Amino acid sequence: MIRNCFLCGADTENIFSSDWVLPGLGTTKIGFSICPDCGSVSQSPSVSFDEMMTFYSSIAVYTNPGRKERPSESKIRDVDEQIRFIKRGIGELPKSAMQIGSSDGYTLSQFRDAGVTRVLGVEPGTASVSLANRLYNIDCIHGSAESFETEESFELIILTHVLEHLYHPQNTLKKCRKIQDSEGEKFIYVEVPLMANHTSLCPGFFSFEHINYYTKENLIQSLRLAGYSPISVVEHFNSNLSPIIGVLASTKEQHHYVDFHADVEVNRQRLINYRQKEVNYWQGCLDKVLDKLQQYKRIFLWGAGIHTCQLVANTNLLQHCQIDGLTDTSSLKWGIKQGEWICQDPVNINWQEGDTVLISSYASEKEIFNALSWLRDKGVETLKLHSIDNKEHANAK
């Protein structure tokens, strides 16, 4: 489907598109476009809202089996910082908080431990709702940001890495403002990936699940248009896989930031430069392991998901190698078709000496590699695609 600009509603101009072999959804044309009026970048063409909801509810997994459902060190650090940042910006933590896109409930559990007495999550993922209750005793509304309803008013609303996923993020921000339209000052904290210079962006930054892209300028503008006034901003470039920006805003009108200025040409050039960088990156990673990969009897891809999709879309892998299967430890993905492969439970595969597994994941490569020692004990090679230091490949067995 073709999308209009998520910020101002104008028609968008496509910069690049390619065919993506999406898990459970088939081969789809995915592209990235710019708004000629306000300069905002969005995914267009993209899949429909219903198709994306199918992906989230039945395929998307945000806990890594190598951590046994525990949060990562970076997640612990980031949530600790969010609590401190909000407390400093307001002066104290509010007594009530709702998080839209509450995932496994860890974030809300930490806000509760820090002194927030009433917490509530909103989460579309069935598995995540169950995890939040089982791991942290967090109550969640099982629904999307677009569909959920509540009669409660919350002093603080949290949206960390949510707006970039929404088809109509402005509607959700206005919905939040309506929830907080009661007497007294209320606050919202929003955190999203930051679309910075292409040199600062990681592989896979323009991804399937992220359909809106924010700069500091258009994020502040989006909050203003919804009826909020930004009071504090934090940006990080090196501490996470991709740059991030967090904004704390108030329902009380204030004038801390200059008027919005659209950088259309700057953002267009960022898209063009990034596209070339992305293709060069993925092909370069494959080129480093291709000779070794071709020596094995059978090749399996580890990870039914977006990184496998990007590997296929951005390289000539299928022209040089026969891929014999796709596997993943997430039971949600077993039986899902991606391209020509059906994802299998790795325990049910008849592994043989001479087999190899190529790990497509960028974000979780190290954790997955460490969790696959049982395969290496069987004589199966496990190859990192993204690792700069490939010595662990040679010492894997």
**SSE string, helix = H, strand = E?**
EEEHHEHEHEEHEEHEEHEHHEEEEHHEH
Spatial strand arrangement across the major sheet: 6-5-4-7-8-11-10
Uncertain ranges:
389-397
Mean pLDDT: 91
The number of helices is 12
Straight-line N-to-C gap? 47 Å
Q: Bin the helical content.
A: 25-40%
Strand content: 15-25%
Shape: globular
Determine the structural class based on helices, strands and strand pairing: alpha/beta
Radius of gyration using CA atoms only: 22 Å
Reported for the largest beta sheet, the result is: 7 strands, mixed
Number of strands: 17
Overview of the structural elements:
The protein is of the alpha/beta class and 397 residues long. Helices cover 32% and strands 22% of the residues. It has 12 helices and 17 strands. The protein has helices at 49-58, 73-90, 106-113, 126-136, 169-179, 216-225, 264-293, 306-314, 317-320, 365-371, 373-376, 391-394, and strands at 13-22, 26-34, 41-43, 96-100, 118-123, 140-142, 156-160, 187-193, 212-213, 229-236, 244-250, 298-302, 325-327, 337-338, 341-344, 355-359, 381-384. Strands 6-5-4-7-8-11-10 form a 7-stranded mixed beta sheet, sandwiched between helices. The longest helix is centred in the last third of the chain and has 30 residues, at 264-293. The model is unreliable at 389-397 (pLDDT under 50).
How would you concisely characterize the structure shown here?
One of its GO terms (biological process) is methylation. This protein has twelve helices and 17 strands.
